[in-house]
Amino acid sequence: MKHLGSRRLLNGIFAGVFVCAPFLLGGEAQASRLPEASAPTFDAGSARPIQGWVEFCSRHPEDCRVNKAEPEFITLDALTWSTILSINREVNRSIQPITDVELYGMADYWDYPSPGYGDCEDYQLLKRKLLAEAGLPTRAMRMTVVIDEKNEGHAVLMIRTDRGDFILDNKTDKVLAWHQTGYVYVKRESQYASSWTSLGHMTSPIATANR
Description:
By secondary structure, the protein is α+β, with helices and mostly antiparallel strands. Helices cover about 25% and strands about 20% of the residues. It is built from 5 helices and 9 strands. It has a 7-stranded antiparallel sheet with strand order 1-9-8-4-5-6-7. α3 crosses α5 (about 120-135). The longest helix is centred in the middle third of the chain and has 17 residues, at about 80-95.
């Protein structure tokens, strides 16, 4: 979890290597009422996939295929929103944080938490798997790379809905709209092919307090 300067960090992200920031759960339980609608993020061209994702897909190809018959966006209702909040909270509290170096002896290794340990991308992969099993379309749930409030690379899960894009994060139990996180958005999985797309370093205008 070494801190990196901006230029070195960006080079690392484009090379497929990034670090996960500390795990800081906190905050009261989020209300289950629907969030306010907001503008979504947008694609800004193709991007190089994260190497850890490429290797994950070679082991779990069924989890990386894009089914174009699925909707690109989730129609958000009270039950679906409650399910998202619940799974985000339950995974955050059931997995113990550990670096890939400590667990696998590798700088960046994407996989499901095993056995009950993982770092940022492992949390998000498990959340997506559980949400898909609950009936949400995988195509609308995209692994996403950001630069966080500590200027470190970080992986989150972006849920694309008819009310905007929301972020599932192991650093907080709150599910926030993308623009409420304080993150810079680098790239995410494509919704059209087994590849990645740039987010053009879209900057969240709000550095949210009490995450």
